[in-house]
Specification:
- With about 250 residues, this protein is an alpha+beta fold.
- It has nine helices and seven strands, in the order αααααααααβββββββ.
- Strands 6-5-4-1-7 form a five-stranded antiparallel β-sheet.
- A hairpin with a 2-residue loop joins β5 (about 230-235) and β6 (about 240-245).
- α3 runs antiparallel to α4 (about 55-70).
- The longest helix has about 35 residues, at about 150-185.
- About 25% of the residues are buried.
């Protein structure tokens, strides 16, 4: 057992002792210190308990969610997460007057992106680049055959094949560019799920404080981040979308 592991084990024991004695804030600080060096489902679970004892509902839910990301089979974290969620006082109000453009199910661009993402993620960046180059070369070959052939069926076949190959080449390079951008994006900003950490937050129609209020979000609610714009995040919950300040949530 190396020195760092010994120190973390000692710190974990101290944190558990503080928790047992009712010193939840001290226990919380030690659990956070451990997690800074070694993420662990059990430590996140204990941290969630320490937050819950201090009535910090959103932070406890966040900790349980992080525990389950590491170990989805953690039964205690699952149970305590459900228990903490039952304490959420308000639920998102489904307002029938909300404009359809703010509902995920009626947002074509989002549906297209959701459909294309699995295709993009099926291959890695290098593979998409190779496919794009191969298709582009195929396009050039077809165009050469079209230009120098005197046979009608060959000219027709190579012409239409070159168009199809070019379109797929463009799609492949677009997928490669998207993956490249994702790889360059900090890991934290790639995490799409988040917890509302501020009391009651109103989702707005635009990434601006003057935007129209759409629906309320309550502390502890889990949302999906669709996109970011400066200090704002466009979130999805149930079948609703809206903009809130990034400071009002924390990514899982």
């Amino acid at each position: 057992m190396n020195l760092i592991l010994i120190l973390l084990t000692s710190l974990f024991t101290q944190a558990n002792t503080q928790y047992a004695e009712g010193n939840y804030a001290e226990a919380e600080a030690k659990y956070e210190q451990i997690l800074a060096d070694q993420p662990s489902a059990d430590v996140y679970y204990n941290l969630g308990n320490a937050y819950f004892k201090q009535n910090e509902l959103a932070q406890s839910i966040l900790a349980y969610e992080r525990a389950l990301q590491i170990d989805p089979s953690h039964k205690d974290a699952k149970y305590n997460l459900q228990f903490a969620q039952s304490y959420i006082k308000g639920q998102i109000k489904q307002n029938n007057e909300i404009d359809n453009e703010h509902r995920i199910k009626n947002t074509p661009s989002f549906l297209i992106a959701k459909w294309l993402k699995p295709i993009r993620d099926a291959l890695n960046l290098q593979t998409w680049m190779i496919i794009s180059i191969a298709l582009f070369i195929s396009t050039l070959i077809c165009l050469l055959l079209f230009a120098f052939s005197n046979t009608v069926w060959i000219r027709k076949t190579t012409f239409y094949t070159s168009i199809v190959a070019l379109l797929f080449s463009i799609m492949a390079i677009a997928n490669a560019a998207s993956l490249h951008k994702q790889e360059k994006t900090p890991r934290e900003s790639q995490r799409k799920e988040a917890i509302i950490t501020q009391g009651i937050v109103n989702a707005l129609s635009a990434p601006d404080s003057s935007g129209k209020k759409l629906f309320p979000l309550y502390e502890g609610i889990k949302v999906e981040i669709i996109e970011t714009n400066g200090d704002w995040c466009r979130i999805h919950v149930s079948d609703l979308t809206g903009w809130i300040l990034a400071a009002h949530l924390e990514r899982i």
